[in-house]
Amino acid sequence: MPKFKIRHITKYTYENTVRDSANQIMLYPIKDQYQDVLDQNVIISGNPVVSLHRDYYGNEVGTFTHAQPHKKLDIDSRVTVQTTQRPLPEDSVDTNIQWQEYESLRYQPEFIDFLKQERFDVLPEVESVIQAGRDESLTPLKASIKLCEYIYKNFSYQKGITTVETTVDEIWKLRSGVCQDFAHILLVMLRLLGMPARYVSGYVCPSKDGMRGEGATHAWVEVYIPYYGWLGLDPTNNCVVNDTHVRLAVGRNFSDCSPVKGTYRGTSDHTLEVAVTVAIENGRTITADKEIQPELVASKSNNSFRRFQEMQMQQ
After folding, report:
1. How confident is the model over 215-252, as pLDDT tens digits?
2. Given 2.30.40.10, 3.90.850.10, 3.10.620.30, 1.10.238.10, which CATH number is that of 95-254?
3. pLDDT band for position 313 (cuts 50, 70, 90)
4. Contact, 310 vs 259, CB < 8 A?
5. How far is CA 53 from the centre of its chain?
6. CA 163, CA 177: separation in Å to the nearest integer?
7. CATH topology for 3-83+257-309?
8. How far apart are CA 127 and CA 158, in angstroms?
9. Whole-prediction pTM
Protein backbone atom coordinates (compact mmCIF):
# COMPACT_ATOMS: atom_id res chain seq x y z
CA MET A 1 0.00 0.00 0.00
CA PRO A 2 1.88 3.09 -1.23
CA LYS A 3 1.86 6.21 0.90
CA PHE A 4 2.11 9.66 -0.71
CA LYS A 5 2.87 13.07 0.75
CA ILE A 6 1.30 15.79 -1.39
CA ARG A 7 1.68 19.55 -1.12
CA HIS A 8 -0.60 21.76 -3.24
CA ILE A 9 0.04 25.52 -3.08
CA THR A 10 -2.18 28.17 -4.67
CA LYS A 11 -1.08 31.82 -4.57
CA TYR A 12 -3.09 34.82 -5.73
CA THR A 13 -1.36 38.19 -5.94
CA TYR A 14 -3.48 41.31 -6.52
CA GLU A 15 -2.26 44.52 -8.11
CA ASN A 16 -4.15 46.56 -5.52
CA THR A 17 -5.83 45.84 -2.19
CA VAL A 18 -9.00 43.72 -2.33
CA ARG A 19 -11.40 42.53 0.38
CA ASP A 20 -14.34 40.23 1.10
CA SER A 21 -12.75 37.28 -0.67
CA ALA A 22 -15.26 34.39 -0.53
CA ASN A 23 -13.79 31.07 -1.59
CA GLN A 24 -14.48 27.40 -2.16
CA ILE A 25 -11.72 24.78 -2.01
CA MET A 26 -11.82 21.15 -3.15
CA LEU A 27 -8.46 20.00 -1.82
CA TYR A 28 -9.67 17.15 0.38
CA PRO A 29 -8.91 13.71 -1.12
CA ILE A 30 -11.75 11.22 -1.35
CA LYS A 31 -11.90 8.72 1.52
CA ASP A 32 -13.06 5.17 0.79
CA GLN A 33 -11.85 1.57 0.94
CA TYR A 34 -9.15 2.25 -1.66
CA GLN A 35 -7.91 5.61 -0.41
CA ASP A 36 -7.25 6.76 3.15
CA VAL A 37 -6.23 10.25 4.29
CA LEU A 38 -3.77 9.79 7.15
CA ASP A 39 -3.37 13.49 7.93
CA GLN A 40 -4.01 16.88 6.33
CA ASN A 41 -3.30 20.50 7.14
CA VAL A 42 -4.63 23.39 5.05
CA ILE A 43 -2.99 26.76 5.81
CA ILE A 44 -4.74 29.88 4.47
CA SER A 45 -3.78 33.56 4.65
CA GLY A 46 -5.52 35.30 7.53
CA ASN A 47 -6.35 31.96 9.22
CA PRO A 48 -10.07 32.04 8.34
CA VAL A 49 -12.51 29.46 9.66
CA VAL A 50 -13.13 26.84 6.97
CA SER A 51 -16.62 25.30 6.93
CA LEU A 52 -16.81 21.79 5.47
CA HIS A 53 -19.71 20.14 3.68
CA ARG A 54 -20.32 17.46 1.06
CA ASP A 55 -21.60 18.46 -2.36
CA TYR A 56 -24.14 16.66 -4.54
CA TYR A 57 -21.47 14.23 -5.81
CA GLY A 58 -20.14 13.38 -2.37
CA ASN A 59 -17.00 15.53 -2.54
CA GLU A 60 -15.74 17.23 0.62
CA VAL A 61 -15.80 20.98 0.04
CA GLY A 62 -14.40 23.79 2.19
CA THR A 63 -15.69 27.38 2.17
CA PHE A 64 -14.17 30.44 3.82
CA THR A 65 -14.15 34.23 3.67
CA HIS A 66 -11.13 36.52 3.96
CA ALA A 67 -12.87 39.78 4.81
CA GLN A 68 -9.89 41.99 5.69
CA PRO A 69 -8.14 44.08 3.00
CA HIS A 70 -5.32 42.07 1.43
CA LYS A 71 -3.03 41.96 -1.59
CA LYS A 72 -2.20 38.26 -1.43
CA LEU A 73 -4.11 35.04 -0.81
CA ASP A 74 -2.16 31.84 -0.16
CA ILE A 75 -3.75 28.40 0.19
CA ASP A 76 -1.31 25.65 1.20
CA SER A 77 -2.61 22.07 1.48
CA ARG A 78 -0.37 19.34 2.90
CA VAL A 79 -1.78 15.84 2.98
CA THR A 80 -0.62 12.25 3.44
CA VAL A 81 -2.64 9.66 1.52
CA GLN A 82 -2.37 5.89 1.51
CA THR A 83 -3.83 3.99 -1.42
CA THR A 84 -4.80 0.36 -1.88
CA GLN A 85 -4.71 -1.58 -5.12
CA ARG A 86 -8.21 -2.36 -6.32
CA PRO A 87 -9.31 -5.55 -8.11
CA LEU A 88 -10.01 -5.32 -11.82
CA PRO A 89 -13.39 -6.31 -13.28
CA GLU A 90 -13.72 -10.02 -13.95
CA ASP A 91 -15.80 -9.24 -17.04
CA SER A 92 -17.43 -12.67 -16.95
CA VAL A 93 -21.11 -11.69 -17.39
CA ASP A 94 -22.59 -12.15 -20.88
CA THR A 95 -21.81 -9.16 -23.13
CA ASN A 96 -25.43 -8.50 -24.17
CA ILE A 97 -26.62 -8.62 -20.57
CA GLN A 98 -24.00 -6.05 -19.59
CA TRP A 99 -25.03 -3.63 -22.35
CA GLN A 100 -28.70 -4.08 -21.49
CA GLU A 101 -27.92 -3.08 -17.91
CA TYR A 102 -27.28 0.49 -19.09
CA GLU A 103 -30.93 0.86 -20.11
CA SER A 104 -32.02 0.70 -16.47
CA LEU A 105 -29.29 3.09 -15.37
CA ARG A 106 -30.61 5.89 -17.59
CA TYR A 107 -33.41 6.64 -15.15
CA GLN A 108 -31.51 6.32 -11.89
CA PRO A 109 -30.75 9.72 -10.28
CA GLU A 110 -27.13 8.89 -9.42
CA PHE A 111 -26.31 8.33 -13.12
CA ILE A 112 -28.38 10.96 -14.95
CA ASP A 113 -25.79 13.75 -14.73
CA PHE A 114 -23.04 11.44 -15.95
CA LEU A 115 -25.02 10.49 -19.07
CA LYS A 116 -25.92 14.01 -20.21
CA GLN A 117 -24.25 14.89 -23.48
CA GLU A 118 -23.14 18.44 -24.17
CA ARG A 119 -23.80 20.05 -27.56
CA PHE A 120 -20.89 20.72 -29.89
CA ASP A 121 -20.30 21.12 -33.62
CA VAL A 122 -18.05 18.10 -34.20
CA LEU A 123 -20.56 15.64 -32.69
CA PRO A 124 -21.16 13.90 -36.07
CA GLU A 125 -17.41 13.41 -36.51
CA VAL A 126 -17.02 11.92 -33.05
CA GLU A 127 -20.01 9.64 -33.63
CA SER A 128 -18.58 8.45 -36.94
CA VAL A 129 -15.28 7.51 -35.25
CA ILE A 130 -17.17 5.56 -32.60
CA GLN A 131 -19.33 3.75 -35.16
CA ALA A 132 -16.33 2.92 -37.35
CA GLY A 133 -14.58 1.23 -34.47
CA ARG A 134 -17.64 -0.31 -32.87
CA ASP A 135 -17.54 -4.05 -32.27
CA GLU A 136 -20.70 -5.54 -30.76
CA SER A 137 -18.71 -8.47 -29.42
CA LEU A 138 -16.83 -6.17 -27.05
CA THR A 139 -17.94 -5.93 -23.44
CA PRO A 140 -18.38 -2.44 -21.91
CA LEU A 141 -15.00 -2.87 -20.22
CA LYS A 142 -13.18 -3.69 -23.46
CA ALA A 143 -15.04 -1.00 -25.41
CA SER A 144 -14.12 1.70 -22.90
CA ILE A 145 -10.47 0.60 -22.81
CA LYS A 146 -10.44 0.71 -26.61
CA LEU A 147 -11.68 4.33 -26.59
CA CYS A 148 -9.06 5.23 -23.99
CA GLU A 149 -6.40 3.76 -26.27
CA TYR A 150 -7.82 5.62 -29.29
CA ILE A 151 -7.34 8.98 -27.57
CA TYR A 152 -3.84 8.07 -26.42
CA LYS A 153 -2.79 7.12 -29.95
CA ASN A 154 -4.58 9.84 -31.91
CA PHE A 155 -4.12 12.91 -29.71
CA SER A 156 -0.73 14.51 -29.15
CA TYR A 157 0.30 15.32 -25.59
CA GLN A 158 1.31 18.98 -25.79
CA LYS A 159 1.40 21.52 -22.98
CA GLY A 160 0.40 25.15 -23.29
CA ILE A 161 -1.96 25.06 -26.26
CA THR A 162 -5.22 24.66 -24.32
CA THR A 163 -6.79 25.88 -21.07
CA VAL A 164 -9.48 24.49 -18.80
CA GLU A 165 -11.98 26.48 -20.88
CA THR A 166 -11.01 24.91 -24.24
CA THR A 167 -14.10 23.36 -25.86
CA VAL A 168 -14.60 19.89 -27.31
CA ASP A 169 -14.69 21.41 -30.80
CA GLU A 170 -11.30 23.04 -30.27
CA ILE A 171 -9.71 19.94 -28.72
CA TRP A 172 -11.01 17.71 -31.51
CA LYS A 173 -9.64 20.01 -34.21
CA LEU A 174 -6.28 20.45 -32.49
CA ARG A 175 -5.95 16.73 -31.76
CA SER A 176 -3.60 17.89 -29.01
CA GLY A 177 -3.70 18.93 -25.39
CA VAL A 178 -3.10 17.61 -21.90
CA CYS A 179 -4.88 15.42 -19.39
CA GLN A 180 -8.00 17.56 -18.90
CA ASP A 181 -8.52 17.67 -22.69
CA PHE A 182 -8.10 13.92 -23.09
CA ALA A 183 -10.49 13.32 -20.19
CA HIS A 184 -13.02 15.68 -21.78
CA ILE A 185 -12.97 13.79 -25.09
CA LEU A 186 -13.19 10.39 -23.40
CA LEU A 187 -16.21 11.57 -21.38
CA VAL A 188 -17.96 12.55 -24.61
CA MET A 189 -17.21 9.24 -26.32
CA LEU A 190 -18.29 7.06 -23.40
CA ARG A 191 -21.53 8.98 -22.94
CA LEU A 192 -22.29 8.61 -26.66
CA LEU A 193 -22.18 4.85 -26.07
CA GLY A 194 -24.70 5.25 -23.23
CA MET A 195 -22.11 4.61 -20.53
CA PRO A 196 -22.15 6.82 -17.41
CA ALA A 197 -18.82 8.63 -17.18
CA ARG A 198 -17.51 11.23 -14.75
CA TYR A 199 -14.54 13.59 -14.59
CA VAL A 200 -11.95 12.97 -11.86
CA SER A 201 -9.52 15.55 -10.50
CA GLY A 202 -6.49 14.49 -8.50
CA TYR A 203 -2.83 13.60 -8.72
CA VAL A 204 -0.83 10.91 -10.45
CA CYS A 205 2.01 9.90 -8.17
CA PRO A 206 5.59 8.75 -8.74
CA SER A 207 5.97 5.19 -9.99
CA LYS A 208 8.85 3.11 -11.29
CA ASP A 209 7.42 3.22 -14.81
CA GLY A 210 6.94 7.01 -14.93
CA MET A 211 3.76 8.61 -16.27
CA ARG A 212 2.71 11.87 -17.86
CA GLY A 213 1.45 14.31 -15.27
CA GLU A 214 3.43 12.96 -12.34
CA GLY A 215 3.75 15.43 -9.51
CA ALA A 216 1.08 17.79 -10.85
CA THR A 217 -2.65 18.13 -10.72
CA HIS A 218 -4.05 15.50 -13.06
CA ALA A 219 -7.38 14.52 -14.60
CA TRP A 220 -8.89 11.28 -15.83
CA VAL A 221 -12.27 9.57 -16.22
CA GLU A 222 -14.31 7.00 -14.31
CA VAL A 223 -16.75 4.89 -16.32
CA TYR A 224 -19.47 2.75 -14.77
CA ILE A 225 -19.04 -0.94 -15.62
CA PRO A 226 -22.06 -3.21 -14.92
CA TYR A 227 -21.56 -5.76 -12.13
CA TYR A 228 -18.38 -3.95 -11.08
CA GLY A 229 -18.84 -0.24 -10.42
CA TRP A 230 -16.75 2.83 -11.28
CA LEU A 231 -13.52 2.10 -13.13
CA GLY A 232 -10.84 4.77 -13.63
CA LEU A 233 -9.32 5.21 -17.10
CA ASP A 234 -6.41 7.57 -17.74
CA PRO A 235 -6.27 8.38 -21.49
CA THR A 236 -3.18 10.55 -20.98
CA ASN A 237 -1.24 7.42 -19.97
CA ASN A 238 -3.45 4.78 -21.61
CA CYS A 239 -3.94 2.85 -18.41
CA VAL A 240 -6.52 1.60 -15.96
CA VAL A 241 -6.29 3.73 -12.82
CA ASN A 242 -5.09 2.04 -9.67
CA ASP A 243 -3.05 2.85 -6.57
CA THR A 244 -0.74 5.45 -8.15
CA HIS A 245 -3.63 7.88 -8.70
CA VAL A 246 -5.00 9.97 -5.81
CA ARG A 247 -8.58 11.24 -6.28
CA LEU A 248 -9.56 14.71 -5.09
CA ALA A 249 -13.07 15.08 -6.52
CA VAL A 250 -15.50 13.74 -9.11
CA GLY A 251 -18.11 15.55 -11.17
CA ARG A 252 -19.61 16.11 -14.60
CA ASN A 253 -16.61 18.16 -15.78
CA PHE A 254 -13.71 20.31 -14.59
CA SER A 255 -15.99 23.03 -13.25
CA ASP A 256 -17.47 20.61 -10.71
CA CYS A 257 -13.97 19.71 -9.48
CA SER A 258 -12.07 23.03 -9.56
CA PRO A 259 -9.57 22.97 -6.65
CA VAL A 260 -10.12 26.66 -5.82
CA LYS A 261 -12.76 29.15 -6.90
CA GLY A 262 -14.57 32.16 -5.49
CA THR A 263 -15.10 35.92 -5.69
CA TYR A 264 -13.53 39.05 -4.26
CA ARG A 265 -14.48 42.71 -3.98
CA GLY A 266 -12.16 45.20 -5.63
CA THR A 267 -11.04 46.60 -8.97
CA SER A 268 -7.64 44.94 -8.94
CA ASP A 269 -6.50 42.38 -11.49
CA HIS A 270 -4.59 39.39 -10.15
CA THR A 271 -2.02 36.76 -11.04
CA LEU A 272 -2.08 33.09 -10.12
CA GLU A 273 0.74 30.74 -9.23
CA VAL A 274 0.26 27.04 -8.48
CA ALA A 275 2.83 24.47 -7.37
CA VAL A 276 2.36 20.78 -6.59
CA THR A 277 4.87 18.44 -4.98
CA VAL A 278 4.23 14.71 -4.68
CA ALA A 279 6.56 12.40 -2.77
CA ILE A 280 6.25 8.66 -2.26
CA GLU A 281 7.45 7.35 1.09
CA ASN A 282 11.05 6.15 0.74
CA GLY A 283 10.92 7.17 -2.90
CA ARG A 284 11.54 10.07 -5.19
CA THR A 285 9.98 13.54 -5.21
CA ILE A 286 8.55 15.25 -8.26
CA THR A 287 7.77 18.97 -8.33
CA ALA A 288 5.68 20.80 -10.92
CA ASP A 289 5.92 24.58 -10.59
CA LYS A 290 3.49 26.55 -12.73
CA GLU A 291 4.42 29.85 -14.23
CA ILE A 292 2.46 32.86 -13.02
CA GLN A 293 -0.47 33.32 -15.37
CA PRO A 294 -2.45 36.59 -15.37
CA GLU A 295 -6.21 36.12 -15.35
CA LEU A 296 -8.05 39.33 -16.15
CA VAL A 297 -11.80 39.09 -15.59
CA ALA A 298 -14.31 41.90 -16.14
CA SER A 299 -16.36 43.09 -13.17
CA LYS A 300 -19.70 41.32 -12.82
CA SER A 301 -21.55 44.09 -10.99
CA ASN A 302 -21.39 47.71 -9.91
CA ASN A 303 -19.90 46.50 -6.64
CA SER A 304 -16.77 45.42 -8.55
CA PHE A 305 -16.96 41.73 -7.71
CA ARG A 306 -14.49 39.66 -9.68
CA ARG A 307 -14.77 35.93 -10.14
CA PHE A 308 -11.78 33.61 -10.18
CA GLN A 309 -10.93 29.94 -10.01
CA GLU A 310 -7.76 27.97 -9.99
CA MET A 311 -7.24 27.78 -13.73
CA GLN A 312 -3.89 26.04 -13.66
CA MET A 313 -3.31 23.71 -16.57
CA GLN A 314 -3.73 20.18 -15.34
CA GLN A 315 -0.99 18.12 -16.84
Report:
1. 668 999 999 999 999 999 999 999 999 999 999 999 99
2. 3.10.620.30
3. very low
4. yes
5. 19
6. 9
7. Immunoglobulin-like (2.60.40)
8. 25
9. 0.88
